[in-house]
Structures are given as structure tokens and as C-alpha cells.
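Help needed: design a sequence for this.
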């Protein structure tokens, strides 16, 4: 769409991927996820599905999942995305001095919201089915925020009304869109959860939002 885009690698340290997040390990995790979608957020079902795999493969996927969902310091992720926004705004030749917005999906959606809380110069934030920040963090948001959610993704979407009300009470700008028949990760066209109509609508709304806000 004509924007300079930067996607920082959250799973690298000093420019090198951790072994648990190597390409081969991530592909194995993706294959497991696509074959066991209902088990990804259910510990007992996930444990059972992993036990059906060859022992080494099951151990490696368990290690990667463990690190991804709690074994790494999320504060490091926030520091990384703040640095990425600063680089685009202050150092990168093609974008220096221009307004910066953020968009993220799942964990990235949560980090897009976190970036809004930690970067007072951010001009726009888009959340795709990511968890909301803690209430006290919302006080620091200086930019408008838009969120896109799947109606079938109850784990995330059930908290959106409270998030929206809290943002309103704090005088923040937040607009949410819930696609009733869409699941978590409805925007990912490489997963069974992909929802064509929801994705098209959300993408158009995202571009319109950025076009309205990032004109500086």
C-alpha cells in the first residue's frame, strides 16, 4: 500500500534466532497447530496431542510452545517494538520524520496496543485479535486505536466491551469491529481459520484508518 514497513524479529537475540525458533522448529509447530487447532489453547488437549507425536518431535514442540507462551520476557518484546518505531521515525532514510503507525496480529496485536502505551509519538495503532493492555497502561495512549476481532474467538473478544468502555472513560479513541462468524486468526490466509469477507473488510478499514491518520 506504499508504506515503509518494518517487522522486527521478536525471537532473535543480537540478530540470531534462538534454536527453539529455528525455521525447522517453527515449521513443525505450524504443522502441529494446523492439525490440532482446538488443542492450542487447551493444556490437556495439547498435552494429549503432543503425546501422539514421536518423542523428540513432541519434546521440541513443547519447548518452543513453552518459550512462546510464557518462557520469554514480554517486556523484551515491548522494548523491541518501541525501538523499531523509533528507528523508522528517527533513523531510516525512507521514513525519517514521518508519522509511524503499528499493526499486529495475535501476539503482534497485543504488542501493537502495548506500543501505543509506551510510545507517545505513535500516531495510530491497529489490533488484530490481540489482548488488551492493563487498565493502568491505557492512561499513556496518545493515538487513536482500532481493533478487529472474531466473534467466535471468545477468549479474546469477550474482553473487548470492557476494553472499549475503559478507553472511553479515559478519554481515548478506540473503535472495534467484531466479525461474528470469524475465528481467531481470521486474517491469516495460510490457516484453516481464514475468513475471506472479514479479512477484506478489515484490510480496507485498516488502510482507510492509516490514510486518515498518517498524513503528516
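Sure. Designed sequence:
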Amino acid at each position: 500500500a506504499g508504506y515503509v514497513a518494518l517487522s522486527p524479529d521478536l525471537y532473535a537475540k543480537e540478530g540470531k534466532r534462538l534454536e527453539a525458533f529455528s525455521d525447522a522448529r517453527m515449521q513443525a509447530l505450524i504443522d502441529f497447530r494446523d492439525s490440532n487447532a482446538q488443542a492450542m489453547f487447551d493444556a490437556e488437549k495439547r498435552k494429549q496431542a503432543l503425546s501422539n507425536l514421536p518423542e523428540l518431535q513432541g519434546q521440541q514442540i513443547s519447548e518452543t510452545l513453552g518459550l512462546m507462551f510464557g518462557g520469554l520476557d514480554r517486556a523484551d518484546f515491548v522494548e523491541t517494538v518501541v525501538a523499531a518505531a523509533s528507528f523508522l521515525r528517527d533513523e531510516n532514510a525512507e521514513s525519517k520524520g514521518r508519522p509511524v503507525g503499528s499493526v499486529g496480529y495475535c501476539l503482534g496485536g497485543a504488542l501493537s496496543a502495548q506500543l501505543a502505551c509506551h510510545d507517545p509519538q505513535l500516531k495510530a495503532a491497529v489490533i488484530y485479535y490481540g489482548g488488551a493492555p492493563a487498565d493502568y497502561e491505557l492512561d499513556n495512549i496518545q493515538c487513536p486505536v482500532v481493533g478487529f476481532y472474531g466473534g467466535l474467538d471468545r477468549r479474546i473478544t469477550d474482553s473487548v466491551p470492557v476494553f472499549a468502555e475503559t478507553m472511553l472513560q479515559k478519554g481515548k479513541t478506540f473503535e472495534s469491529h467484531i466479525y461474528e462468524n470469524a475465528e481467531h486468526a481470521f486474517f491469516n490466509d495460510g490457516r484453516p481459520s481464514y475468513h475471506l469477507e472479514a479479512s477484506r473488510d478489515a484490510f480496507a478499514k485498516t488502510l482507510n484508518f492509516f490514510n486518515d491518520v498518517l498524513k503528516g
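The two ends are 17 Å apart (CA to CA).
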